[in-house]
Protein backbone atom coordinates (compact mmCIF):
# COMPACT_ATOMS: atom_id res chain seq x y z
CA UNK A 1 0.00 0.00 0.00
CA UNK A 2 1.16 3.56 -0.67
CA UNK A 3 0.73 6.34 1.91
CA UNK A 4 1.05 10.10 1.54
CA UNK A 5 2.15 11.84 4.75
CA UNK A 6 1.24 15.51 4.43
CA UNK A 7 3.33 17.67 6.75
CA UNK A 8 7.00 17.21 7.60
CA UNK A 9 7.33 18.46 11.16
CA UNK A 10 8.41 16.14 13.97
CA UNK A 11 5.21 14.09 13.92
CA UNK A 12 4.83 13.80 10.13
CA UNK A 13 8.46 12.71 9.85
CA UNK A 14 8.09 10.17 12.66
CA UNK A 15 4.91 8.73 11.15
CA UNK A 16 6.59 8.50 7.73
CA UNK A 17 9.50 6.57 9.30
CA UNK A 18 7.13 4.28 11.23
CA UNK A 19 4.71 3.65 8.35
CA UNK A 20 7.61 2.84 6.01
CA UNK A 21 8.17 -0.32 8.07
CA UNK A 22 5.01 -1.71 6.44
CA UNK A 23 4.16 0.52 3.45
CA UNK A 24 5.61 2.71 0.71
CA UNK A 25 5.58 6.33 1.89
CA UNK A 26 5.83 9.78 0.31
CA UNK A 27 6.37 12.65 2.71
CA UNK A 28 5.11 16.07 1.61
CA UNK A 29 6.93 19.09 2.94
CA UNK A 30 5.49 22.51 2.06
CA UNK A 31 8.93 24.15 2.03
CA UNK A 32 10.96 23.10 -1.08
CA UNK A 33 14.28 23.97 0.59
CA UNK A 34 13.43 21.70 3.51
CA UNK A 35 12.35 18.91 1.15
CA UNK A 36 15.73 19.18 -0.57
CA UNK A 37 17.61 19.18 2.72
CA UNK A 38 15.80 16.04 3.91
CA UNK A 39 16.30 14.29 0.55
CA UNK A 40 20.04 15.01 0.51
CA UNK A 41 20.84 14.34 4.14
CA UNK A 42 18.17 11.64 4.72
CA UNK A 43 17.32 13.37 7.99
CA UNK A 44 14.87 16.12 8.98
CA UNK A 45 17.52 18.36 10.51
CA UNK A 46 15.09 21.08 11.66
CA UNK A 47 12.30 18.99 13.22
CA UNK A 48 13.59 15.46 13.97
CA UNK A 49 17.37 15.46 13.71
CA UNK A 50 17.89 12.38 15.88
CA UNK A 51 16.51 9.72 13.51
CA UNK A 52 17.55 9.02 9.89
CA UNK A 53 14.88 8.69 7.22
CA UNK A 54 14.82 5.26 5.53
CA UNK A 55 15.95 5.33 1.89
CA UNK A 56 12.54 4.24 0.64
CA UNK A 57 10.66 7.25 2.08
CA UNK A 58 10.37 9.68 -0.83
CA UNK A 59 10.29 13.37 0.08
CA UNK A 60 8.68 16.04 -2.09
CA UNK A 61 7.41 19.60 -1.93
CA UNK A 62 5.08 18.87 -4.84
CA UNK A 63 1.59 18.22 -3.44
CA UNK A 64 0.17 16.29 -6.45
CA UNK A 65 3.32 14.17 -6.61
CA UNK A 66 2.96 13.26 -2.92
CA UNK A 67 -0.58 12.04 -3.59
CA UNK A 68 0.00 10.23 -6.88
CA UNK A 69 -0.89 6.55 -6.48
CA UNK A 70 -1.61 6.92 -2.75
CA UNK A 71 -4.20 4.66 -1.06
CA UNK A 72 -4.43 6.80 2.08
CA UNK A 73 -3.27 10.25 3.18
CA UNK A 74 -2.18 11.19 6.71
CA UNK A 75 -2.54 14.91 7.40
CA UNK A 76 0.09 15.88 9.95
CA UNK A 77 0.27 19.66 9.73
CA UNK A 78 -0.40 21.80 12.81
CA UNK A 79 -4.15 22.33 13.34
CA UNK A 80 -3.86 25.78 11.71
CA UNK A 81 -2.98 24.08 8.40
CA UNK A 82 -5.68 21.38 8.50
CA UNK A 83 -8.46 23.22 6.62
CA UNK A 84 -6.22 24.34 3.74
CA UNK A 85 -4.67 20.88 3.43
CA UNK A 86 -8.09 19.19 3.35
CA UNK A 87 -9.31 21.64 0.68
CA UNK A 88 -6.20 20.96 -1.43
CA UNK A 89 -6.69 17.22 -0.98
CA UNK A 90 -10.32 17.48 -2.09
CA UNK A 91 -9.21 19.26 -5.29
CA UNK A 92 -6.42 16.79 -6.03
CA UNK A 93 -7.80 13.41 -4.88
CA UNK A 94 -11.49 13.78 -3.91
CA UNK A 95 -11.94 10.04 -3.35
CA UNK A 96 -8.85 9.39 -1.30
CA UNK A 97 -9.50 8.28 2.31
CA UNK A 98 -7.51 10.20 4.90
CA UNK A 99 -6.65 10.55 8.57
CA UNK A 100 -5.74 13.72 10.43
CA UNK A 101 -3.21 13.59 13.27
CA UNK A 102 -3.29 17.20 14.47
CA UNK A 103 -4.48 17.95 17.99
CA UNK A 104 -6.25 21.10 19.08
CA UNK A 105 -9.33 23.31 18.87
CA UNK A 106 -9.50 26.28 16.49
CA UNK A 107 -9.61 29.34 18.76
CA UNK A 108 -11.55 31.51 16.28
CA UNK A 109 -14.32 29.13 15.27
CA UNK A 110 -14.14 27.02 18.45
CA UNK A 111 -14.07 24.04 16.10
CA UNK A 112 -12.67 20.57 16.71
CA UNK A 113 -10.60 19.09 13.86
CA UNK A 114 -13.49 17.01 12.42
CA UNK A 115 -15.55 20.20 12.01
CA UNK A 116 -12.65 21.95 10.31
CA UNK A 117 -12.48 18.98 7.93
CA UNK A 118 -16.23 19.07 7.22
CA UNK A 119 -16.23 22.82 6.63
CA UNK A 120 -13.21 22.66 4.31
CA UNK A 121 -14.72 19.82 2.26
CA UNK A 122 -16.67 20.97 -0.86
CA UNK A 123 -20.43 20.43 -0.57
CA UNK A 124 -20.52 19.22 -4.16
CA UNK A 125 -18.49 16.11 -3.26
CA UNK A 126 -19.58 13.02 -1.38
CA UNK A 127 -18.58 13.32 2.32
CA UNK A 128 -14.95 12.34 2.90
CA UNK A 129 -14.01 8.91 4.21
CA UNK A 130 -11.84 10.07 7.05
CA UNK A 131 -10.95 9.80 10.73
CA UNK A 132 -8.58 10.94 13.45
CA UNK A 133 -5.31 9.35 14.57
CA UNK A 134 -4.44 10.32 18.13
CA UNK A 135 -3.14 9.06 21.47
CA UNK A 136 0.02 9.15 23.61
CA UNK A 137 2.90 9.41 21.17
CA UNK A 138 6.10 11.40 21.27
CA UNK A 139 7.45 11.66 17.73
CA UNK A 140 11.00 10.75 18.73
CA UNK A 141 9.92 7.49 20.40
CA UNK A 142 7.72 6.45 17.46
CA UNK A 143 10.56 7.18 15.03
CA UNK A 144 12.88 5.06 17.19
CA UNK A 145 10.37 2.19 17.04
CA UNK A 146 9.69 2.22 20.76
CA UNK A 147 6.35 0.57 21.62
CA UNK A 148 3.41 2.97 21.23
CA UNK A 149 -0.39 2.59 21.23
CA UNK A 150 -2.68 4.93 19.29
CA UNK A 151 -6.38 5.38 18.62
CA UNK A 152 -7.85 5.58 15.13
CA UNK A 153 -11.37 6.97 15.48
CA UNK A 154 -14.02 7.47 12.82
CA UNK A 155 -17.80 7.80 12.91
CA UNK A 156 -17.94 4.59 10.88
CA UNK A 157 -16.48 1.93 13.20
CA UNK A 158 -16.04 -0.56 10.30
CA UNK A 159 -14.01 1.98 8.36
CA UNK A 160 -11.86 2.62 11.45
CA UNK A 161 -11.34 -1.12 11.95
CA UNK A 162 -10.35 -1.57 8.30
CA UNK A 163 -7.61 1.07 8.53
CA UNK A 164 -6.42 -0.20 11.90
CA UNK A 165 -5.82 -3.57 10.25
CA UNK A 166 -3.88 -1.91 7.41
CA UNK A 167 -1.68 0.27 9.61
CA UNK A 168 -1.25 -1.73 12.82
CA UNK A 169 2.27 -2.91 13.74
CA UNK A 170 3.53 -4.81 16.80
CA UNK A 171 5.34 -1.67 18.03
CA UNK A 172 2.76 0.79 16.75
CA UNK A 173 -0.43 -0.70 18.09
CA UNK A 174 -3.63 0.86 16.81
CA UNK A 175 -7.02 0.64 18.50
CA UNK A 176 -10.19 1.39 16.52
CA UNK A 177 -12.76 3.76 18.04
CA UNK A 178 -15.97 5.45 16.97
CA UNK A 179 -16.02 8.44 19.36
CA UNK A 180 -14.36 11.12 17.24
CA UNK A 181 -15.40 13.98 19.53
CA UNK A 182 -14.11 12.27 22.70
CA UNK A 183 -10.81 11.34 21.01
CA UNK A 184 -10.32 14.87 19.68
CA UNK A 185 -11.19 16.63 22.95
CA UNK A 186 -8.77 14.32 24.82
CA UNK A 187 -5.94 15.07 22.37
CA UNK A 188 -6.60 18.81 22.40
CA UNK A 189 -7.11 19.43 26.12
CA UNK A 190 -4.25 17.33 27.46
CA UNK A 191 -1.95 20.01 26.05
CA UNK A 192 -3.62 22.68 28.20
CA UNK A 193 -3.19 20.59 31.35
CA UNK A 194 0.42 19.82 30.32
CA UNK A 195 1.15 23.56 30.34
CA UNK A 196 -0.30 23.72 33.88
CA UNK A 197 1.82 20.73 34.95
CA UNK A 198 4.93 22.41 33.52
CA UNK A 199 4.22 25.58 35.50
CA UNK A 200 3.62 23.59 38.71
CA UNK A 201 6.82 21.59 38.24
CA UNK A 202 8.74 24.75 37.35
CA UNK A 203 7.59 26.36 40.60
CA UNK A 204 8.57 23.27 42.58
CA UNK A 205 5.00 22.48 43.67
CA UNK A 206 5.86 18.79 43.99
CA UNK A 207 4.55 15.43 42.88
CA UNK A 208 1.34 15.59 44.95
CA UNK A 209 0.37 18.75 43.08
CA UNK A 210 1.14 17.14 39.73
CA UNK A 211 -1.08 14.14 40.55
CA UNK A 212 -3.87 16.51 41.60
CA UNK A 213 -3.53 18.50 38.37
CA UNK A 214 -3.66 15.38 36.23
CA UNK A 215 -6.74 14.04 38.01
CA UNK A 216 -8.68 17.29 38.20
CA UNK A 217 -7.49 18.10 34.67
CA UNK A 218 -9.03 14.88 33.45
CA UNK A 219 -12.30 15.85 35.14
CA UNK A 220 -12.27 19.18 33.22
CA UNK A 221 -11.48 17.42 29.95
CA UNK A 222 -14.30 14.92 30.47
CA UNK A 223 -16.76 17.73 31.30
CA UNK A 224 -15.95 19.54 28.08
CA UNK A 225 -16.04 16.32 26.05
CA UNK A 226 -19.47 15.47 27.46
CA UNK A 227 -20.80 18.93 26.61
CA UNK A 228 -19.58 18.56 23.04
CA UNK A 229 -21.06 15.08 22.60
CA UNK A 230 -18.09 12.83 23.50
CA UNK A 231 -18.26 9.80 25.76
CA UNK A 232 -16.71 9.51 29.24
CA UNK A 233 -15.21 6.08 28.57
CA UNK A 234 -13.14 7.50 25.68
CA UNK A 235 -11.48 9.91 28.10
CA UNK A 236 -10.49 6.97 30.31
CA UNK A 237 -8.58 5.44 27.39
CA UNK A 238 -5.49 6.20 25.32
CA UNK A 239 -6.83 9.38 23.73
CA UNK A 240 -7.73 10.84 27.12
CA UNK A 241 -5.97 9.63 30.22
CA UNK A 242 -3.15 7.97 28.24
CA UNK A 243 -2.16 11.13 26.39
CA UNK A 244 -2.70 13.26 29.49
CA UNK A 245 -0.29 11.17 31.57
CA UNK A 246 2.33 11.20 28.81
CA UNK A 247 2.20 14.91 28.15
CA UNK A 248 1.98 16.11 31.76
CA UNK A 249 4.91 13.94 32.89
CA UNK A 250 7.12 13.39 29.81
CA UNK A 251 10.22 15.55 29.36
CA UNK A 252 9.72 15.44 25.58
CA UNK A 253 6.45 17.39 25.69
CA UNK A 254 6.63 20.80 24.05
CA UNK A 255 3.47 21.97 25.87
CA UNK A 256 4.89 20.96 29.23
CA UNK A 257 8.04 22.88 28.31
CA UNK A 258 5.92 26.00 27.63
CA UNK A 259 4.71 25.74 31.25
CA UNK A 260 8.21 25.17 32.62
CA UNK A 261 9.45 28.28 30.80
CA UNK A 262 6.43 30.37 31.88
CA UNK A 263 7.25 29.52 35.50
CA UNK A 264 10.57 31.36 35.03
CA UNK A 265 8.67 34.49 34.01
CA UNK A 266 9.57 34.38 30.30
CA UNK A 267 7.12 36.15 27.97
CA UNK A 268 5.04 33.90 25.74
CA UNK A 269 6.50 35.17 22.44
CA UNK A 270 10.01 34.37 23.64
CA UNK A 271 8.91 30.93 24.84
CA UNK A 272 7.39 30.05 21.46
CA UNK A 273 10.47 31.24 19.56
CA UNK A 274 12.76 29.22 21.81
CA UNK A 275 10.53 26.14 21.43
CA UNK A 276 10.87 26.11 17.63
CA UNK A 277 7.90 23.74 17.30
CA UNK A 278 4.15 24.17 17.44
CA UNK A 279 2.61 24.15 20.96
CA UNK A 280 -1.05 23.45 20.23
CA UNK A 281 -1.97 23.96 23.89
CA UNK A 282 -1.54 27.74 23.52
CA UNK A 283 -4.34 28.45 20.99
CA UNK A 284 -6.37 25.56 22.44
CA UNK A 285 -6.40 27.23 25.87
CA UNK A 286 -8.24 30.19 24.34
CA UNK A 287 -10.73 27.85 22.69
CA UNK A 288 -11.24 25.73 25.82
CA UNK A 289 -12.00 28.73 28.02
CA UNK A 290 -14.42 30.18 25.45
CA UNK A 291 -16.18 26.81 25.10
CA UNK A 292 -16.38 26.37 28.88
CA UNK A 293 -18.09 29.77 29.16
CA UNK A 294 -20.43 28.99 26.27
CA UNK A 295 -21.49 25.67 27.81
CA UNK A 296 -21.49 26.82 31.44
CA UNK A 297 -18.78 24.34 32.47
CA UNK A 298 -16.30 24.84 35.29
CA UNK A 299 -12.71 24.56 34.02
CA UNK A 300 -10.58 26.30 36.68
CA UNK A 301 -7.26 24.80 35.53
CA UNK A 302 -7.83 25.87 31.92
CA UNK A 303 -8.84 29.35 33.19
CA UNK A 304 -5.61 29.55 35.21
CA UNK A 305 -3.54 28.52 32.16
CA UNK A 306 -5.35 31.20 30.16
CA UNK A 307 -4.30 33.85 32.68
CA UNK A 308 -0.72 32.53 32.74
CA UNK A 309 -0.43 32.68 28.95
CA UNK A 310 -2.32 35.84 28.11
CA UNK A 311 -1.79 38.09 31.13
CA UNK A 312 1.97 38.51 30.84
CA UNK A 313 2.37 40.77 33.87
CA UNK A 314 0.95 38.18 36.26
CA UNK A 315 3.47 36.20 38.30
CA UNK A 316 2.97 32.45 37.87
CA UNK A 317 2.98 32.05 41.67
CA UNK A 318 -0.01 34.38 42.00
CA UNK A 319 -2.06 32.37 39.52
CA UNK A 320 -1.25 29.12 41.31
CA UNK A 321 -2.17 30.67 44.68
CA UNK A 322 -5.50 31.83 43.25
CA UNK A 323 -6.20 28.31 41.97
CA UNK A 324 -5.42 26.85 45.41
CA UNK A 325 -7.56 29.45 47.20
CA UNK A 326 -10.80 28.19 45.65
CA UNK A 327 -13.51 27.09 48.07
CA UNK A 328 -13.63 23.42 49.12
CA UNK A 329 -16.17 21.29 47.27
CA UNK A 330 -17.30 17.75 46.56
CA UNK A 331 -15.00 15.83 44.24
CA UNK A 332 -17.13 15.63 41.10
CA UNK A 333 -16.12 14.13 37.77
N1 LIG B 1 5.45 15.94 17.80
C1 LIG B 1 4.73 15.02 18.38
O1 LIG B 1 5.24 14.24 19.17
C2 LIG B 1 3.26 14.89 18.06
C3 LIG B 1 2.61 13.70 18.38
C4 LIG B 1 1.25 13.56 18.12
C5 LIG B 1 0.55 14.60 17.51
N2 LIG B 1 1.20 15.74 17.19
C6 LIG B 1 0.43 16.78 16.53
O2 LIG B 1 0.82 16.84 15.15
C7 LIG B 1 0.67 18.17 14.65
C8 LIG B 1 1.98 18.58 14.00
O3 LIG B 1 2.95 18.62 15.03
P1 LIG B 1 4.50 18.51 14.78
O4 LIG B 1 5.09 17.99 16.03
O5 LIG B 1 4.80 17.78 13.54
O6 LIG B 1 4.87 20.06 14.63
P2 LIG B 1 6.30 20.72 14.36
O7 LIG B 1 6.29 22.03 15.01
O8 LIG B 1 7.39 19.75 14.65
O9 LIG B 1 6.29 20.94 12.76
C9 LIG B 1 5.29 21.64 12.14
C10 LIG B 1 5.43 21.40 10.64
O10 LIG B 1 4.26 21.80 9.96
C11 LIG B 1 4.61 22.66 8.90
N3 LIG B 1 3.48 23.54 8.72
C12 LIG B 1 3.11 24.60 9.46
N4 LIG B 1 1.97 25.11 8.97
C13 LIG B 1 1.66 24.36 7.87
C14 LIG B 1 0.64 24.42 6.91
N5 LIG B 1 -0.29 25.37 6.97
N6 LIG B 1 0.61 23.50 5.93
C15 LIG B 1 1.58 22.55 5.87
N7 LIG B 1 2.57 22.45 6.74
C16 LIG B 1 2.61 23.35 7.72
C17 LIG B 1 5.88 23.34 9.36
O11 LIG B 1 6.60 23.82 8.24
C18 LIG B 1 6.58 22.15 10.02
O12 LIG B 1 7.19 21.34 9.05
C19 LIG B 1 0.28 19.03 15.86
O13 LIG B 1 -1.12 19.23 15.85
C20 LIG B 1 0.69 18.18 17.06
O14 LIG B 1 -0.11 18.44 18.21
C21 LIG B 1 2.54 15.91 17.44
O1 LIG C 1 5.11 17.63 22.58
P1 LIG C 1 3.64 17.89 22.76
O2 LIG C 1 3.33 18.52 24.07
O3 LIG C 1 3.07 18.62 21.58
O4 LIG C 1 2.91 16.46 22.78
C1 LIG C 1 3.17 15.55 21.75
C2 LIG C 1 2.07 14.51 21.63
O5 LIG C 1 0.84 15.11 21.42
C3 LIG C 1 2.02 13.58 22.80
O6 LIG C 1 1.04 12.60 22.56
Automatic annotation (TrEMBL):
<keyword id="KW-1208">Phospholipid metabolism</keyword>
<keyword id="KW-0594">Phospholipid biosynthesis</keyword>
<dbReference type="GO" id="GO:0005975">
    <property type="term" value="P:carbohydrate metabolic process"/>
</dbReference>
<feature type="binding site">
    <location>
        <position position="254"/>
    </location>
    <ligand>
        <name>NADPH</name>
    </ligand>
</feature>
<feature type="binding site">
    <location>
        <position position="30"/>
    </location>
    <ligand>
        <name>NADPH</name>
    </ligand>
</feature>
<feature type="binding site">
    <location>
        <position position="47"/>
    </location>
    <ligand>
        <name>NADPH</name>
    </ligand>
</feature>
<feature type="binding site">
    <location>
        <position position="135"/>
    </location>
    <ligand>
        <name>sn-glycerol 3-phosphate</name>
    </ligand>
</feature>
<keyword id="KW-0963">Cytoplasm</keyword>
<dbReference type="Pfam" id="PF01210">
    <property type="entry name" value="NAD_Gly3P_dh_N"/>
</dbReference>
<comment type="pathway">
    <text>Membrane lipid metabolism; glycerophospholipid metabolism.</text>
</comment>
<dbReference type="GO" id="GO:0051287">
    <property type="term" value="F:NAD binding"/>
</dbReference>
<keyword id="KW-0547">Nucleotide-binding</keyword>
<feature type="binding site">
    <location>
        <begin position="254"/>
        <end position="255"/>
    </location>
    <ligand>
        <name>substrate</name>
    </ligand>
</feature>
<keyword id="KW-0443">Lipid metabolism</keyword>
<dbReference type="InterPro" id="IPR011128">
    <property type="entry name" value="G3P_DH_NAD-dep_N"/>
</dbReference>
<dbReference type="GO" id="GO:0046168">
    <property type="term" value="P:glycerol-3-phosphate catabolic process"/>
</dbReference>
<feature type="binding site">
    <location>
        <position position="254"/>
    </location>
    <ligand>
        <name>sn-glycerol 3-phosphate</name>
    </ligand>
</feature>
<feature type="binding site">
    <location>
        <position position="11"/>
    </location>
    <ligand>
        <name>NADPH</name>
    </ligand>
</feature>
<dbReference type="GO" id="GO:0005829">
    <property type="term" value="C:cytosol"/>
</dbReference>
<dbReference type="InterPro" id="IPR008927">
    <property type="entry name" value="6-PGluconate_DH-like_C_sf"/>
</dbReference>
<feature type="binding site">
    <location>
        <position position="190"/>
    </location>
    <ligand>
        <name>sn-glycerol 3-phosphate</name>
    </ligand>
</feature>
<feature type="binding site">
    <location>
        <begin position="7"/>
        <end position="12"/>
    </location>
    <ligand>
        <name>NAD(+)</name>
    </ligand>
</feature>
<keyword id="KW-0521">NADP</keyword>
<dbReference type="GO" id="GO:0008654">
    <property type="term" value="P:phospholipid biosynthetic process"/>
</dbReference>
<feature type="binding site">
    <location>
        <position position="139"/>
    </location>
    <ligand>
        <name>NAD(+)</name>
    </ligand>
</feature>
<protein>
    <recommendedName>
        <fullName>Glycerol-3-phosphate dehydrogenase [NAD(P)+]</fullName>
        <ecNumber>1.1.1.94</ecNumber>
    </recommendedName>
</protein>
<feature type="binding site">
    <location>
        <position position="103"/>
    </location>
    <ligand>
        <name>substrate</name>
    </ligand>
</feature>
<feature type="binding site">
    <location>
        <position position="278"/>
    </location>
    <ligand>
        <name>NADPH</name>
    </ligand>
</feature>
<feature type="active site" description="Proton acceptor">
    <location>
        <position position="190"/>
    </location>
</feature>
<comment type="similarity">
    <text>Belongs to the NAD-dependent glycerol-3-phosphate dehydrogenase family.</text>
</comment>
<dbReference type="InterPro" id="IPR006168">
    <property type="entry name" value="G3P_DH_NAD-dep"/>
</dbReference>
<feature type="binding site">
    <location>
        <position position="139"/>
    </location>
    <ligand>
        <name>NADPH</name>
    </ligand>
</feature>
<feature type="binding site">
    <location>
        <position position="103"/>
    </location>
    <ligand>
        <name>sn-glycerol 3-phosphate</name>
    </ligand>
</feature>
<feature type="domain" description="Glycerol-3-phosphate dehydrogenase NAD-dependent C-terminal">
    <location>
        <begin position="179"/>
        <end position="313"/>
    </location>
</feature>
<feature type="binding site">
    <location>
        <position position="243"/>
    </location>
    <ligand>
        <name>sn-glycerol 3-phosphate</name>
    </ligand>
</feature>
<dbReference type="InterPro" id="IPR006109">
    <property type="entry name" value="G3P_DH_NAD-dep_C"/>
</dbReference>
<feature type="binding site">
    <location>
        <position position="255"/>
    </location>
    <ligand>
        <name>sn-glycerol 3-phosphate</name>
    </ligand>
</feature>
<dbReference type="GO" id="GO:0046167">
    <property type="term" value="P:glycerol-3-phosphate biosynthetic process"/>
</dbReference>
<dbReference type="GO" id="GO:0141153">
    <property type="term" value="F:glycerol-3-phosphate dehydrogenase (NADP+) activity"/>
</dbReference>
<feature type="binding site">
    <location>
        <position position="254"/>
    </location>
    <ligand>
        <name>NAD(+)</name>
    </ligand>
</feature>
<feature type="binding site">
    <location>
        <position position="280"/>
    </location>
    <ligand>
        <name>NADPH</name>
    </ligand>
</feature>
<feature type="domain" description="Glycerol-3-phosphate dehydrogenase NAD-dependent N-terminal">
    <location>
        <begin position="3"/>
        <end position="159"/>
    </location>
</feature>
Amino acid sequence: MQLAVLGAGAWGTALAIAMARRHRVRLWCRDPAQAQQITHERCNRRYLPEVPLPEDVAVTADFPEALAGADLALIVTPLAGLGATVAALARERPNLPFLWACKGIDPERLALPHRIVTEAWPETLLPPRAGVLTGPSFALEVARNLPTALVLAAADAHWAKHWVEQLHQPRLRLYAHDDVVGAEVGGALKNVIAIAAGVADGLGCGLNARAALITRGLAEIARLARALGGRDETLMGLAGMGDLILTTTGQLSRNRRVGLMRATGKPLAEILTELGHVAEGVPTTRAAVALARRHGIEMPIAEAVHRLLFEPDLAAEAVVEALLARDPKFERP
